Amino acid sequence: MTSAAIYGCSGHRLTEAERAFFADVRPWGFILFRRNIDSPEQVRALTDALRDSIGDAGAPILIDQEGGRVQRMGPPHWSKYPPGEAYLKATNDPLAARELVRLGARLMAHDLKAVGINVDCLPVLDVPVPGAHDIIGDRAYAHDPETVTQLGRAAAEGLLAGGVLPVIKHMPGHGRAFADSHHALPVVHADLATLDSWDFAPFKALSDMPLAMTAHVVFDAIDPKHPATTSKTAVKLMRKDLGFGGLIMTDDLSMKALSGSLRERAEASLKAGCDVVLHCNGDLKEMGEVAEGVGKLKGKAGKRAAAALARIVSMPEPLDPFEARLRFDALMAGRLEAARGPDVGEAQA
Length: 349
Known about the structure:
The protein is α/β, with parallel strands linked by helices. Helix content is 41%, strand content 13%. The chain is built from twelve helices and twelve strands. It has an eight-stranded parallel beta barrel with strand order 1-2-3-6-7-9-11-12, surrounded by six helices. Strand 1, helix 1 and strand 2 form a beta-alpha-beta unit. Helix 4 packs parallel to helix 5. The relative contact order is 0.14.
């Protein structure tokens, strides 16, 4: 039976030790990073090998393909995409930005699907506040919840149309954090009413999405002792107050915002109500420690996992990738010129 975990791997090809480990623990899925990416042929061979290692041709394989500084697949084999904030800056119009975001996400889905990747950790639904740490920064679509909601849904729709599942992140919100959870534990002191009207709003609006990733952030108003990932109170809020019925995965367990051994982190996350844990760095020893704290993916969590994968369309929306890319680049460049004047130059795309 599948275990409630998602793991990375170390390089461009599976080692024999990795193949044996995955065959033994049978994770629900895998995640790729830049260290795993070389050419389209190599990535396709790797995704095939990962699925073959657990005997599941439909297993989810994830990637963080946002654009901007978070883009694992890029030139020379794949196009470069702009960060989230660039769409609204290019258009100065949320409706026009929505068109571009959806088109960009549809193109990303085409890139991913071609190499066997079927889950993208996008859209970012965090709403930054003034002074917040730049770990979100330009990855955010806007600085107000309504626009983030509109553009986040456009990204999710573009991915779904291309046969790739979106992951809304970082629930219930990372935009108010004044520290980078990769290196420290952020603590948010805002009251619940403020959080509900601002930080939580995009997640409520996209509660129909299949997958979500937690934030390693402490919210005093929810649970002053535990980050959302390992807080029963926070996960309960995600389910009831935010209305999220899909699969909840943790952010990377190896991030320094969390404390305790990797086994303890995995156990605490699942005990809090997360469905699946995520470990990203491909360190085999660490993955073994995580596996010690992970049980089988069954019950309600198993049903949510199956329901998520059932959202992958068998026939993606028709797309001429060459024409669509030309249109995307032209719209981005043309609208940037209109918004910023003739001396700006070409848009990042």
